[in-house]
Design a protein that fits this description.
This protein is mainly beta. The protein is about 10% helix and about 35% strand. β3 and β4 form a beta hairpin. The structure holds calcium ion (3 copies).
Length: about 400
């Protein structure tokens, strides 16, 4: 027999096998590959139970509907995907007996989180933390229970802090900015979100790193808007500039920030107001001629908290850690971790190591997950951030700029 004929025969065999398998597994949504000849199994039910109490609060029962369940056969490598029904069950028919890796994901919708917490600050996903594999055996147990736990991820993260000032322009430093990124799958709203600079003073010997509950701040600004005026789309970057102007007019090595999304404008100081760019609203910043972040060291947080809930303390205001969405610290010498000012709950490490007027910036690292660009988010700036040689307003240094970043 010629090689061509052998190939033909194999293809024919595979196509017959494929049609048998597809027709035999009506509940299977995706079949990436066709399982080989092995003992066929009976029916299995996997029941998903919630460890977090979320489902109980929402639906009055602990089962988990609408979860995506993926199984991967250990010996054959074939993959299957299911969605749990309203009783939290996945019914599987005609699967071969084998041990399967199992991955379960149930994203929480923004409106569900709002119903549970009263406000939506973080993305939560229910996952199978404990059970990572199951043995499906025809003639053996046919019902399985898997319990799901939660992992949380900030919907919004600080994706870049540019603070050092450009090269070749003397002491020019008005081109600072903070960039924010929506890493969730949903539209977020920036309205009323806080940007605060963490306060410390080596001169006065004040460092609140070990405060068990609160960020201390003397610079608190919020985004304008009444709730849904300033959306940030999934995969979108936005820039809040110290001054939203084309800085290359003043400093050729600087950057054009005239198309920023927001700017900090201090109306009681000699500051510039670009009329076409919305201004951040100053809640508290008693001194300084503009929004100011340190060129070599500083710590910035974003938080959601009603302005009336800020707690006055001495000449500062307090923001509870539980309201902080993201926080990043940078230091002139990132090895001096014991001199940090931001509590390790918010940021376990520090980025930085940039000198004044070098034009360098601090960018959250890109990681490639499921063929998608994502940003590192370990709540540890030592791991999550890298230093880049020039600022990247509204884009990422290693991503091809597209409409919404991804
Ligand atoms: Ca300004
Ligand atoms: Ca403006
Ligand atoms: Ca950027």
């Amino acid at each position: 027999m010629k090689i061509k004929d052998v190939v033909k025969l194999i293809l024919l065999y595979l196509s017959i096998l494929a049609s048998i398998m597809v027709n035999g597994c009506s509940e299977i949504l995706n079949i990436d590959e066709v399982p080989g000849v092995k003992e066929r199994g009976g029916d299995f039910i996997i029941n998903l139970k919630d460890n977090t109490g979320f489902m109980q609060k929402l639906f009055g029962k602990g089962s988990v509907p609408n979860a995506i369940v993926r199984l991967k056969s250990n010996s054959l490598g074939t993959e299957y995907s299911f969605v749990s029904d309203s009783s939290g069950n996945v019914r599987i028919t005609g699967l071969i007996s084998d041990s399967y890796f199992i991955s379960i994901k149930r994203g929480m919708l923004p409106q569900e989180l709002e119903a549970i917490f009263g406000a939506y600050t973080k993305d939560y996903v229910l996952v199978n933390k404990e059970t990572k594999a199951i043995e499906l055996s025809a003639g053996g147990v046919s019902e399985y229970e898997i319990r799901l736990d939660t992992i949380s991820k900030s919907a919004l993260v600080i994706s870049e802090i540019y603070a050092s000032g450009p090269t070749g322009a003397g002491l020019y430093y008005h081109d600072k900015y903070i960039e924010i990124y929506n890493q969730s799958e949903y539209i977020q709203y920036l309205d009323s979100m806080i940007i605060a600079i963490v306060y410390s003073s080596s001169y006065l010997g004040l460092n609140y790193r070990d405060d068990p509950e609160y960020i201390h701040s003397k610079s608190i600004w919020i985004f304008p808007g009444n709730g849904t005026d300033h959306p940030i789309l999934p995969g979108q970057f936005i820039v809040c500039a110290e001054d939203a102007i084309n800085h290359t007019m003043n400093a050729p090595q600087s950057v054009d920030l005239s198309n920023s999304d927001f700017e900090f404008y201090k109306d009681d100081a000699p500051d510039i107001d670009n009329p076409s760019i919305p201004n951040m609203i100053r809640i508290y910043q008693p001194s300084g001629n503009d929004w100011l972040i340190g060129g070599e060291k500083g710590a910035i947080i974003i938080a959601r908290l009603g302005v009336n809930s800020l707690i006055p303390y001495s000449e500062e205001f307090l923001i509870p850690y539980k309201n902080v969405i993201d926080g990043v610290e940078y230091m002139a010498d990132p090895t001096k971790i014991n001199e940090k000012t931001l509590n390790p709950i918010i940021d376990a490490g520090t980025t930085g190591g940039i000198q004044f007027y070098t034009g360098k910036s601090m960018e959250r690292k890109s990681v490639f997950v499921n063929n998608m660009n994502e940003l590192a988010d370990e709540n540890n700036s030592s791991l999550d951030f890298i230093i880049i040689t020039k600022p990247t307003p509204n884009y990422h240094s290693t991503w091809i700029p597209t409409e919404h970043g991804k």
